[in-house]
Amino acid sequence: MVIRKSNRELALMREAGRIVALTHARLKERIEPGLTTAELDSQANEIVAKHGATPSFLRYRGFPASVCVSINEQVVHGIPGPRVLEEGDMVSLDFGAIYQGYHGDAAITVGVGRISEEARRLIETTRGTLEAAIGQATAGNYLGDISWAIQDYAESRGFSVVRQYVGHGIGRNMHEDPQIPNYGQRGRGILLKPGMTFALEPMVNVGTYLTRVLDDGWTVVTEDGELSAHFEHTIAITEGEPEILTLLQEGCDHES
Ligand code: MG
Fold it and tell me: What pTM value is reported for the model?
C-alpha cells in the first residue's frame, strides 16, 4: 500500500530532507585527493547530530556506517573506511537522515580533482536521468512513466541502468511501497497522487547493467568493472510540480 502523507508529515520530511541536503553540500566541499572515506562518514555524523537528526543507514540491516561511499566501479553500499580518494576517482555519496521519525534520502556523484571525459559524461547523464524522472513525477501520471523516463534518458546516451536496485516510497520508513525500478514502460504501475513521497535513485553504468556484491557483503560493483554513478532525491507528489524535499534552499543555514 502506498501511504499518502499529511501536511504535518510533509513538513517533517521537508526538515529531514533539508538536513540531508545540507550534509551533502558539506561533504561535497570536502571531496579532494587525500581524504579518507571514513572522514566523510564522521563529518556526516557531526552534522546530523547538530541538527537533531539521526542517520538512516547506520545499523540498517547491519550496515556499519552512516554514509554509503562508492568509488568508480562501485555502484552503491560502499563502506567508508581507510581508503583514500585519489585524483581522477568518482565518488558516490548516499546518505539519509531521520528527523522526528521521518526520513530523507539523497545521493550525489562527484569527481575527485580532474576526471576522465567518460566519467564526466556519466555523471552528467545520471544527473539528467534524475531530472527526467522528477519531470514525470506529477499527479495523474503513472509510476511507469518515471521508470521509462530514466531508462530512455540513459540508454539513448549509450549507458545502461542498474536493474537490481530500485527507488522506493519513503516516510516513516526509509523503504516503503512502491518499489520504483529505473527501467520500465509508460502508463504502467500505480497512478501518482498528491501526498505520495518517493526516493528516486537512478544508478547508471558505462557498460553492463549487471552487478555483483563484494565479499564484505555490502559493496555492490559493476560486473564488468566499468564506472557507475548514482543520483537520488526524495520528492513529494503535489497538485502541481513535484516538490524536491532534499534540495538545499537559498538562504537556509549553511553552517556545519
Ligand atoms: Mg534510497
Answer: 0.96
Task: Extract the runs of DSSP E, i.e. beta strands, from 64-122.
Answer: 67-71, 74-76, 90-99, 102-111
**pLDDT value of residue 128:** 98
Separation of 6 CA from ligand 1 center, angstroms?
Answer: 21
Give distance in angstroms: CA of 107 to centre of ligand 1. Answer: 8
Out of 3.30.450.40, 3.30.470.30, 3.40.640.10, 3.90.230.10, the CATH code matching 7-244 is 3.90.230.10
Return the domain boundaries, the chain: 7-244
pLDDT of residue 249 exceeding 80, the answer is no
Q: What is the pLDDT of residue 61?
A: 92
Which string of DSSP letters, residue by residue, matches 198-231? Answer: EEE--EEESS-S-EEE-TTSS-EEETT---EEE-
At 232 the three-state DSSP class reads: strand
